[in-house]
Design brief:
- With 89 residues, the chain is mostly beta strands.
- The protein has one domain (3-88).
- Helix content is 12%, strand content 43%.
- The chain has 1 helix and 7 strands.
- The protein has one helix at residues 78-88; strands spanning 3-6, 9-12, 17-20, 28-36, 39-45, 54-59, 64-67.
- A hairpin with a 4-residue loop joins strand 6 (54-59) and strand 7 (64-67).
- It starts with a strand and ends with a helix.
- 29% of the residues are buried.
Length: 89
């Protein structure tokens, strides 16, 4: 399966990738309090200057984030990234 690497994490290029929140300790994890079927809508930002935000489903009870790093481009703000879920639901 093809992968792409962003800030030392390997992402599936065809679908969202789940990571432990512990692995994201250097990333900014933004959680919007809007419930989604699998957790909360959110966004994550890698520890890379001028990199955009990826939509993510944050599952605090499981300590996981399902990151949509397979998308062709990142979003400019965490709000725009979280709004991605309104487009696909």
């Amino acid at each position: 399966m093809e992968k792409k690497e962003i800030a030392k994490l390997k992402f599936n290029v065809a679908k969202p990738t789940s990571f432990s929140l512990k692995l994201l300790h250097d990333w900014v994890v933004w959680q919007f309090p809007k419930k989604h079927a699998k957790g909360y809508c959110g966004a994550v930002h890698p520890p890379l200057e001028k990199h955009g935000w990826f939509p993510a489903i944050i599952q605090p009870d499981k300590g996981e984030a399902q990151i949509h790093g397979h998308l062709p481009e990142a979003f400019e703000t965490p709000e725009l990234a979280a709004d991605y879920f309104a487009l696909i639901d």
